[in-house]
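The instructor's notes for this session suggest beginning with a concrete chain rather than abstract definitions. Hand out the sequence below and ask the class to guess, before any prediction is shown, which regions might be ordered.
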Amino acid sequence: MDEEEINRGEELKPEIERAIKASRSSIVVLSQNYATSTWCLEELVLILQRRRAFSHFVLPIFYHVNPSDVRKQTGSFVVEKDRWKTALMEVANLSGFTISGPETRILKEIVDTVYDRLDQREVHLPLNIIGMDTRYKEISSWLDQCNVEFLAIYGMGGSGKTTLAKYIYNLTRRTFEYVSFVEDIGSRCKTYNDLLELQKQLLKDILGGKKRKIPSISRGTCLIEDVLQMNRTLIVLDDIVEQSQLATLLGTGKINPQSKIIITTRENVDDWFDIPYWRCQKYEMRLLNHDESLELFCRHAFQSGIHHEGYDWVLKYCEGNPLALEVLGSSTSKYNAHMIMPSQLRLFEIDMDSRIQSVLMRSYLSLTCNTVKELFLHIACFFIGIDIDYVAKILEPDYAAQSGIKTLLEKCLLSISPNKKIMMHRLLQEMAKNIIRQESTKLPAKRSRVWLSSDSYRILSKGKGSKTIEGLTVDMKMLQKENFAFKSSKLKTDAFKKMEILKLLKLNFSELGGSYEYVSENLRWLCWHGFHLRTIPSDLYMGNLVAIDMSSSNLEVFDPPMVLQSLQILNLKDSHDLIEIRNISRIPHLETLILWDCYSLVNVCKTIGDLTSLSLLNMTGCKNLCNREQMNLEGASTSGGVITKQPTFSFPFSLHQLFLKDCNLECTDSFPLSFIVQPCLQYLNLCNSLFESLPCYNHLENLRVLDLSFCSRLRRLLCLPSTLAELYIYYCDLLEKITFQSHRFSLQEFGYEGCINLYEVEGFIKLVPIAKLDETELGHMKWLKEYQNHQVCLVGDDELTVGRSWHIQMLYEFNIMSTSLPDINDPNMTSEHKSESSYLSFDVPSCPKNKRLTGINVTFKYSVSGDDWAWFCKVNTMNGVVDLMYNPKVIGKPEFGEVCTWLSYWPIGNTLNIGDTVNVSIIVMSGLEVHECGVSLVYSDQEILENNMGCEEIVGGDLSGFQLSTGAYYLCRHDFFELMEVGRLTPDWFRILVGDTIDYTEVRGWRKTGRPKQMNPSFTELKTNRCIIHGPQFEDIYNIVDMSKLSIGDKSVAFTSSLGDMNSSTRSELIDETMELFVQEQKESEGMSEAFDSDDIKGSDSPPHGKRLKSVVKDELSGPEIKEQKSVVTHELSGQEKKIGLSISHSGSRRCRFQGCSRAARGSTMYCIAHGGGKRCVFAGCTKGAEGSTLLCKAHGGVKRCGFLGCTKGAKGSTSFCKDHGGGKRCGFLGCTKGAKGSTSFCKAHGGGKRCGFLGCTKGAKGSTSFCKSHGGGKRCGFLGCTKGAEGSTSFCKTHGGGNMCSVPGCTKSARGRSDWCIRHGGGRRCKSENCNKSAQGSTDFCKAHAGESSATRVEGSAISSTTEGAPPIGGGSSLK
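After discussion, reveal the predicted structure:
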C-alpha cells in the first residue's frame, strides 16, 4: 500500500481497511517476521473476508519462507488468536509464488498473474440499448438462488438475447472468481477443430488465464467438468444451437452451486436439462413494448431519444423486434423520414432487408427436415391465429404436423397463445413469404402458395393456375373492403385444371362458375364461408378432405355426395337456411360437428347416433331441431289411442362435449336430459333453457364442466356429481339451492353472479333472510325476528350480494352463524364481557345448574374507514385447543358516519373447560374502524348441542383444507394475497393476523375450498386445456380448452359497486341500458368483416362504472377463424320476452396490446397477465379488468399516464395523477365522490388541481378557494348565508371583502366585509342607515353613501385623520383631502 495515499493527520488503520475494501486484489508478502505484526495479521483476516464475500483476488508470496511453516504455524508463524491461525492456514493453501533465490526472474510472472486476474473481461454493449434494465430485474432473483445454476434465455432471432446476456454479465462478473463469455457458438462451431478451440477458450477463462493443453474434445470436456466443480464461475454460452454442444462444452457432472451459467438459444430448452445435477430457469426473451420500440427507433433514426409521432406503422411492422427497429431506424436517418418511410416499409414487406432476413433465416435453415420446412411455410401463409388442434388435424396426413409443430415450437418459430391459437411473429411470417416469393418473383401463379386475395383473384378470374400451387386463399369480402377493382365477382373453376397438388383451399364469399370436377382430389382443407349453392355439388370430389368449413352458407340440405372417410371436422355454423342433414353415416370418422345458430334446421339423420368418433357436437341456437317432436305412429297403442312423442334423433355414445345452449330445452319424458347413454360426457352446456330442475347426473362420472347460465326457471340443483370441477349458474335468478353427491363443496370454479335468490350451496355457504327462518332455527337468537324488516346493505362478495334483498340475513359458514345489524339498542345484545377496544380476554366460569355451555356470541360495532375491507375475528384459548380466525363471506355496510353491529355465534362450548382463558380480537387490516367488542356465553338446557339452531356444519366437519401449518384454522374464502399483490393490502397484513411464525405465501391462491390442492389427473388435463379461467368467457367450437366460459364474457356482467351506489334498477331499466349498449356496439361493429385474423380482434371498451348490467353474452368463433358474433339473451318484461342481440368482440383470442407481446389478452382487459391483464380494477366495488400495467380499468383512469411532468406511472382512479402525485384520492368536499385533482384534496369542480395563489407557494388550492390551507384556503366565507370560500388568509370571500389587506400602513391583517380596513381599524360593521346592508366605514356606524347623517362624527374623524399620515379617516369614510 502506498503511504502517499494517506493524508497527514489521519489514522492509519481505518485508511488501510478502506483501501483493502476498495481494492479488487491483494498481494500478501509473507516474510520471516510477518506473523510478529498484529497489524499484518488483522489485515490478512480482512483480506480473506473480502475474498470469501466478494471474490477478492489474493496472491500469496512466500518470501524466503516455507509455505508449510505458514500452514502448520511453526517457527516465527506461531500465533495466539484463533482468527489469525485460521487466516494463516487459509492463505497458505492458496496458490501463489515461493521466492527463495533471485527475485527479478519471478516478478514478471507475478505481474502477469495479477493482470490476467484483474483483466476487466468486459464485453461490448451497443450504444442504444433499451429495456435491458427492466428485463434484468425480471430475472435478477435467479442470481440469488444457490440451487439453480443455469439461466436459459431463448427467443426468436434479433430479439435481444445476446444483448441481455452481455448486460447481465457486465453487471455481475466482478462478484465471481472466474468469468468467461463464449460468443456466437452457433456460427463458430462448424467443424471438430472449431469445437476444440471453444473448449480451449472456456478452459483458459475459468482457470484464470492459465493455458492447459487439450489433446481431444472428450478430454477437454473432462477437464472443464473438473474445474466447474471447484471454481466459482460465471459463464455465458451465446447462441447454443443444440443440446450436444452444451454437453460437450460443460460435460454432465456437478457444478459448483455458487456458479452461474447463462445460455442464449433460439431453441426451446425443455428437454435440455434432464441431467440430475443441473437445474435451469427459463426466460423467454420479451420483445420491446410500444414506448421502448419507439425510443429505440428514434435513437437510430434521429440520434435522439425524443419520441417522434407518426411511426406506429413502423412499430406494427417490427412488433418489438430490436434488430428490425435498428435496421429501419438506421435506414430512416439517411432520408426525409416522413416522405420515404411508408414507401420503404412497403419495400420491406415485398423484399425483407437482408440484415434482418439473414438473422431470421438461421432458425429456418436449422430445420433439418424438408417436411417441417414445408409445414412452417403452410402455417405462415394460412393458419396464423387458428386453433392448434384444428391445424394439426388438417396437416397431419401430409406433414406429420403433431411432431412438426413441436419442432417449430422448440425452434421459437411458432408460439401458442393461452387459448391454444398458433401465433407467429410478423417478421417470421414475412421471412416465410419472402422464401416463397423467391420461387417466382413476378408470377404468383408459379409459386407453391398464394396467400394474397388479390393474387388469387387474378389467377381464378383468368383461369390460369399452375402445377406448383399447394395452397390458395381468396376472400371477396376482404377485397371489397380494400376497394380492390375487379370486373366480375364470379370466378372460374378452369383455373383448378392444372392445380393437381392443391391441398389447402379457401374461397370465402366467392362464386365459382364451371365444373367442380377440376378441383384437386388431394384437397385436405376446404374453407368456403358464404358458400353460394343450396346443395353440395355432386362432381366435387371430397374424399380426402379432413376439414370442411362452410359457415354462413346458403345450404338448404347437406348431403355428402360420397363416403368421406378422412373427414373429421364439419362446420356449418350460421347456415340459416339449412333445413336438413342427410346420410351423415357417410362420414364415419367425424369428430366435430358444428351446427351453431342453424335455427331453420328441423331434421338430422338418425344415424348421427351411430357415429363412434363424434366427440364434440354444438347445436347452440337450434331451437326448431331440439324442440321438434314427431309422431311415432308405429309405437302408438291402437287400443288406447295414445300417441307417443319422441325426438327425431339420439346423441351418440362417444360425445365428450355437448352444446345445447339457447335451445329453450325443457325436461320432459320424451327428452329427459339425463344423457344416460353418454357416459364419456365431460362438458355440458344447457344455457338459457326452460327446465325447473335436472335429473341426477351421478352416472356422468367424467363430467367436469356444467354451464346452466340464464336458465330463468331453474329452482334447484340436487346431488351434483362429485367429479364436477366447474359450475356456472349466472343469472339463474330463481335458483335457491344446490347440493352435491358427496355433500361437500369441491368445485374449482364456481360462477353464480345474478343468482339473487340462491340461499344455500351445500358445503359452501348458506345465506337466508331472517324472515324465512323460524324461531327454532334461530335458537337463542330468536329475538332477531323482531328486526327482520330492518335493512342492511351486504358487501364482501358481489356475485352473492348484488341485487339481493337488503333485509337482515343470517349467514351460516364454517359452523358459525353471523348477521349484521343496524345500530339497534336491544337488551339481548348486552355482552357479559365488553371492551372499548378491538380485543378482550376472559376466563370460562363454571356452568349454571342444569346448563351446558354450547358456545359464545361475539359482537363488535364498527364503521367504514375505507373501501377494501380486510378483517378477521380471531378466537383462541391460551392452551391452544381453540385457534380460529374467521372472515365471513359477507358483512353489512353502514352508511357513511353510521355504525353497524356484527353478531356471531361460535358453537365451541364442548372445547372449553372451566378456567380456560379465551382471547377474542377483531383484527383489521383495512376498511373498518372498530368501536367496541363484546362476548357472551351461550348455555343450553339440553345435554347436547343445539342442533336445532340451524347452525349445522356447512363444510361437513372437515376443516383440514383451511388449517395452516401452525395448526390454526384460517376460515376464509377470500384471496387476500391477491389484494396484496395489486397494492391494496400492505405485505405485513398476514403478520398482523398470525404473527411471525409463518410466511404469507402460505395463503397464496387461497380458494373457496381453502388452500390449493393437487387436482386429480382428469381435472389437471382439463386445466391444461384452459378449462380453468375466471368466469365464463367463450366457447371454442373445436376444443374443450374454450368450453368453460360460455354464457357471458369474462365475468363481463358488471354491476354497481357494492361499496358505492347501492340503488337497484328495475328490469326495464336494465333492458333500456342494454339496448343503449347494443346500439353503440352495432355502430362500432358496422362494416366489419365476418372473418378476420386474430391480430385484428379488438375488445369492446369496458362499459361505464355504475350500471348494473353492461354486457350479456359473449359468443364465439366460426370454425377455426376468429369471428365477431352475436348471441341472444332473453330477459322477461311484463310476462313477455325481449330479445337483445349484443355484438361483442371475442375476448379470448385477442392479442395483448403491449407492444411486441404475443400472449393472449386476459378477461375483458386488453393485456396479458404479464402486462397487467386479468386483474380486477382496484376502484372500490368495480369488477372491470385493470388496464395495461395500471391497477384500474379504463373508466377509472387505467392506462392514463400521471399528468405530473416527467412521471411515467399510471394515473389513479378518475384523477389525472399517480398516487405519489396526489391521484386516487376522493374529493374532500362534503358529499362529492369525484377524484381529487393533482396533489390537492378536491376535485376540479371544487377547486382541486389549482395552485395556491399566494406568491411563491406551490401547494394546491383548497376547496373552491384560490389558496392552500396555510394561506387561508378551504375556509367558508364568514358572511352570513354565503357558501363561497374565504379568500387568502381572510375570513370572507372576495364578494364580501375577503383577500384585501387593511389599508392602514404597516397592518398585515385582512380588510373585513366590504370595507378597506380590518376590525381593529374599523372594518367589518354594517351601515346603520335603514335598509342599507353596506359596510360601515372606519369607526363610524355608516357606509360611505350615508356619511352625511353624522357630520359631527365625520368632522371629528377628519380632524383625527389629518394627524395620522396615510391612515384611513376614522369617520364615515368621506375623508378630507
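Then share the key points. Residues 1211 and 1218 are 4 Å apart (CA to CA). The chain has a mean pLDDT of 75.
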